[in-house]
Design goal:
Two copies of one chain form a homodimer. By secondary structure, chain A is of the alpha/beta class. Chain A is built from 13 helices and 13 strands. Chains A, B: Keywords: Transferase.
Chain lengths: 428, 428
């Protein structure tokens, strides 16, 4: 078939009726599928059932620093859990603060603290400034944007390239504007594009000159070990680039086990320079908490040992996820390839496929899919303020549904993408 | 023996040398005991070892609302956990938000939010006000004071009576000063006095007129079920007093299982009016978290069922704790009664004995005890800014040490109390 753009009006009208018929057929089936969020599937959660019973009473008496993990204390976590994250990210244990079940909470709390207390001695709390701005690569993670919105932080969208966010533009902006205090980054298998920042982008982010002395990279390393191929992307260790430089305190890394074990019951980490960790413990964490759940930390450490290490566990996740991502690509290719109405990513890791439809059609596609029983991520959610200026990006989250549900959902999505495109072309 | 106050100088000097001999003897023994914090003892923690393995894989599939507790979602907690707290405090489940392992975090976060966003529509964020003040009954819990200090909230000490904080003074202050936005309360078995607020005090706190429309009671119900006798205190349910009044949103209650199961690995709750909970979920919690650890919530629910309910478990705690509190009273009575140099509380619940020594002697007693190997809570910690104006209050935390350690520690403390008193009397 030619691209839809070369069809004449009659051809488009006939095509519209054919698609509308398919669409109505789906609508009549009372389908209800939710693909809005990047949630692991029950089959993935089943991989971690040994978490429930992996700890023996004896384990509780054998924590490295002699602390009783059941009791109060141990503000920054048990040594074993700090070591787990340190090893995963190539940092020292002294750079790790282990948090509760949510790295989102650590991110939110970091911004909240910056608002009320600032991030560095001698710098004002951000709430005392007339304006605070964050750079936001787009498309990206809606919950980052919601944190900024809550605290009134202005978001500046930065276009993504295949190498990561447009580093030339970033360097220029941060050099000139001291209101720019932060930047959200999902540096590996980015949400939703799947892009991993190149070595050069990482290096330049680490070394660039910023007018604001208290500029921070919010480095959300959510998908560090979440590969979908046997040739995983490698993300440059940004801590090696800032170490020993005047930017040593620039990086706030966040991570969690949410998509390794149980998303609702994992452990998280805040990773930064030793100076930042020491200051945060002294000035903030010690007032907010007596320490996160150390039993759950120990539970995770022992569980990862039991399954032969995190990479072994993540391979099992990948085995479940690969066919799903393959199905997304297969369905899009079968239905949409060559029609000039959509492009999509083929990620090597992470939880999403980023779909771009014709300009002005994303909201319509999501609305149509909803009507046919498939809930997608809200159109625009991947942009600051929920506004996609071209109204074209849709985040596809194929992990949660079963294969048969996904196949059905993809059929529906493909019809909706094409239907919205034809509607647009007919309206011109 | 007469009170020390009636001894002549020679007698006091002789007494001093006798006490100093005992003190030096302790110092020579290289004792190291920590009684600084209200921590459960290992024997108490052992009561909850079934927590580790109480959950079966099947349990994870049987949550009341059909949610998978392993996965994301369920912002305010699983129904079973909300019901647990609702039953404990005589409120509706819709008034409960279940948090992570620390009620301190919920308290801190509530104050932090009030600073950045305020607590009620139409009221300014507290950080935009020239001054924010909190009423602080004294002596009380140092971590409450640290939260105020962190956010620059001025603390106004309020004297405690046998009925709770001086309600006449409170009513007058809040009626006249709209900078008073909050009050810290440990309404049952207060930290450290053990006092439970009387019905009248609770009712008047609920109903008093406050100049600030956004005044809040921070109701830290930490020791609700932590009885030490068979005739427990009963705390009036303050939610019944505010229900249906214009003060319906006044109460922020906080609670946790920290001193029921594992202090480091429990679950917590924020309990308030339905309107407050709904607003907090929508405006704040949903940006900060996807929900606390639901597996740990389910674990606690099942564990409490297994041990026959919370009261049954708390009775076992009381059996361990009663002899320790009895020992504190026995030792003080044996060594200090009738000497006119100390008074102490005999709490019916909670975790502390409040000791008042001669004015100006608390710091000295704590320093002497430290020298002899017993770490006590810092003198002054029970007051705002760490300053006890009479320098007389010491918080005794007898729960953690073993009985033999406690006996030894009490001998040392008693000698230090008397030694400091004699030093003072000799110096006059």
């Amino acid at each position: 078939m030619d691209t839809l753009h070369t069809m004449n009006k009659t051809g488009l009208q006939e095509h519209y009726h054919m698609l509308k018929g398919q669409f109505d057929h789906f609508c009549a089936q009372n389908i209800s599928l939710n693909m809005a969020r990047g949630k692991p599937s029950p089959a993935q959660l089943d991989l971690s059932m040994d978490l429930l019973n992996v700890l023996t009473p004896k384990d509780c008496l054998q924590v490295e620093n002699g602390i009783d993990p059941r009791n109060y204390g141990g503000l920054d976590g048990i040594p074993e859990a700090k070591g787990l994250f340190a090893k995963m990210f190539g940092v020292r244990s002294s750079q790790v603060f282990v948090g509760g079940n949510s790295s989102l909470t650590l991110m939110h709390d970091r911004v909240a603290r910056a608002m009320t207390h600032g991030v560095e001695d001698g710098c004002l709390p951000w709430s005392k400034l007339p304006k605070v701005k964050f750079l936001c690569p787009v498309p990206s993670y809606d919950r980052h944007f919601e944190i900024c919105a809550l605290f009134g932080i202005e978001m500046i969208p930065i276009a993504m390239t295949e190498e990561g966010p447009d580093i030339d533009e970033i360097e220029q902006l941060v050099r000139e504007d001291d209101a720019i205090k932060g930047m959200w980054c999902v540096p590996k298998y980015s949400n939703p594009t799947g892009i991993t920042y190149s070595d050069e982008v990482v290096r330049r982010l680490a070394r660039m000159q910023t007018k604001a002395r208290d500029f921070r990279l919010f480095w959300d390393n959510a998908y560090a070990v979440h590969h979908l191929t046997n040739t995983p992307d490698e993300l440059r260790n940004i801590f090696e680039d800032v170490a020993g430089t005047e930017n040593e305190n620039r990086v706030y890394m966040f991570a969690s086990t949410s998509k390794m074990t149980f998303p609702g019951a994992g452990i998280s980490a805040f990773i930064s320079s030793e100076a930042n960790i020491t200051a945060a413990k002294k000035r903030f964490f010690s007032v907010q908490t007596i320490g996160a759940d150390k039993i759950n930390q120990l539970r995770h450490v022992r569980f990862f040992e039991k399954v032969g290490g995190i990479p072994a566990l993540m391979k099992k996740h990948a085995e479940i996820l690969k066919p799903k991502f393959a199905e997304v690509d297969r369905a899009f290719t079968a239905s949409l390839a060559g029609k000039g109405i959509a492009t999509w990513t083929k990620p090597k890791g992470g939880y999403f496929v980023s779909l771009n439809v014709l300009d002005g059609c994303a909201k319509r596609v999501v609305a149509l899919a909803k009507q046919a029983g498939v809930t997608l991520t809200t159109a625009g959610a991947t942009f600051p303020y929920g506004v996609d200026p071209r109204d074209r990006n849709i985040r596809i989250a194929p992990t949660y549904p079963s294969m048969s549900e996904l196949e059905q959902a993809m059929k529906i999505i493909c019809v909706c993408v094409e239907l919205a495109a034809v509607e647009k072309l007919l309206a011109v």
